Amino acid sequence: MSDVRTADARSLVHDANVSFTCPHCGTYSQHIKQAVDRQVSYDLEHVILDGNRSSVTARHVLMSCVSCNKGTYFLVRLDPRPPGIFEIVHQYPLSIMATNPLLPIDLAPAVLEAEKCLSVGAPNACGVMCRRAIHVLCQDKGAAGKDLHDQLKDLKDRNVITPDLWEWAEELRVVGKHGAHPEWEDVSMDDADYAVRFLGEVLRYVYVNPAERAARKLKETSTKK
Questions:
Q1: Of 31, 134, 151, 218, which residue is 20 to 30 A from 43 by alpha carbon distance?
Q2: What is the CB neighbour count within 10 angstroms for residue 157?
């Protein structure tokens, strides 16, 4: 069983059980492969192998979360050329963070785009969108400073984010620059995966946790009356 936060393409094809963060319940849990009507492999594109025309194929995979019993669909691309490349080209649904109603309306599109970039294997674009999301957060919280570095420091100094979250936000700022500048090292899929997870934790601390605590406090107060 794979031990990854996001689903690993090779494991999705070969393993009966894969662990990743469920996009429905947000729990890092084991997922069990479900039977589909047909294990379809079909042509995505044609390549030339040893002078012969061959096909790059795809596999449908449906995984069921043991925590909430809901399913996640993957379309996995299989490249027959050595060493044999497995790539997730589509996932549904994506992470629950982008659709969280507690996020500001201007922030949600950037988060969703970052998650989409990760799901289709576009790590550089994912890094750029994670950085954009952090920049929108700074604007929403009225951060002062001439650039994103100074704005993030302002949020830390005002205790909008903790020192630990500031370090994560700084990583998102840097990974976004890597994704945007061709002279810098490319963003890897692992880096993009961590970036999306770090972004989710920052947003949860800034927006989701305070709203949930306030709702809980209001409920407890009304119960005592």
A1: 31
A2: 12
Q: DSSP for 151-211?
A: HHHHHHHTTSS-HHHHHHHHHHHHHHHHHH-TTSPPPPHHHHHHHHHHHHHHHIIIIIHHH
Contacts of 184 (CB under 8 A, 6+ apart): 177, 178
Kindly state the percentage of the chain with pLDDT values over 90.
37
pTM: 0.62
CA gap 184, 70 in Å, rounded: 40
Strand partners, 57: 43, 78
User: pLDDT tens for residues 50-104?
Assistant: 455 555 677 889 999 999 999 998 888 877 666 667 878 777 776 656 667 788 8
Give the integer Cα–Cα distance in Å for 179 and 183.
Answer: 10
Map residue 108 onto helix, strand or coil.
Answer: helix
Q: Which pair of structure tokens corresponds to residue 138?
A: 């700074």
Could you identify the residue written with the tokens 């205790």?
A: 159
CA-closest candidate to residue 134, choices 118, 122, 147: 147
Task: Say what angle helices 123-140 and 189-203 make with each other, to 10 degrees.
Answer: 20
Is the separation of the CB atoms in 17 and 32 below 8 Å?
yes
